[in-house]
Amino acid sequence: MRVAIANLSLPADTIWSALTTPEEMAKWMGDVTNLTTEDGGALRMGSKIRFTTRGKQVESKVIAFEPNRRLSLRAQQGPVQAVYTYELHGAGPVRVTHDIECHVRGLLGLLRPLIARTLRRTDGGQLDRLERHLAEK
Asked: Which residues pair with 49 in a beta bridge?
């Protein structure tokens, strides 16, 4: 599901850096603390990211990585799996889209619409926060 679209008047590489550098990610992702990659570096294909959000430890994995174009992160918490995709379109202004796919196993699958709405509400403001973060740099 598409959760947000932003048109940013910045170079794609500036936006990409904010999307893939752990120190910057922690500033715009929302209720995220202690964000680190397994190897301590910037994101790349296969990177594992660990962070705390809303009091819970979460691990994500980079499952798509096309520099200055597309980043997808897969997070799993129990039976709920969410895939967050950020795509950059154009040269300037750059249109950035944010999509979330939600998959739920087992009986909790009945709650998938509610879980998806919750993800939209809690994570749908990421592009607004990204835009504010980039404006402050």
From this structure: 37, 60
Amino acid at 98: H
Contacts (Cβ under 8 Å, ≥6 apart) of 113 = none
Tokens of 120: 């939209």
Summarize pLDDT for 49-94 with one digit per residue, the tens.
999 887 888 899 999 999 999 999 999 888 888 899 999 999 778 9
Q: What is the CATH number of the domain that holds 8?
A: 3.30.530.20
**Which structural domain, as residue segments, surrounds residue 36?**
2-136
Q: Residue 115, exposed/middle/buried by CB under 10 A (0-12, 13-18, 19+)? A: middle
Conformation bin of residue 92: beta by default, left when phi > 0, alpha when psi is -120 to 50: left
Number of domains the chain is built from: 1
pLDDT tens digits for range 99-109: 988 888 787 77
Backbone angles phi, psi at 128, to 5 degrees: -65, -45
- Per-residue CA distances from 21 to 7, 13, 24, 120 (Å): 20, 12, 5, 23
Instruction: Identify the three-state secondary structure at position 16.
Output: helix
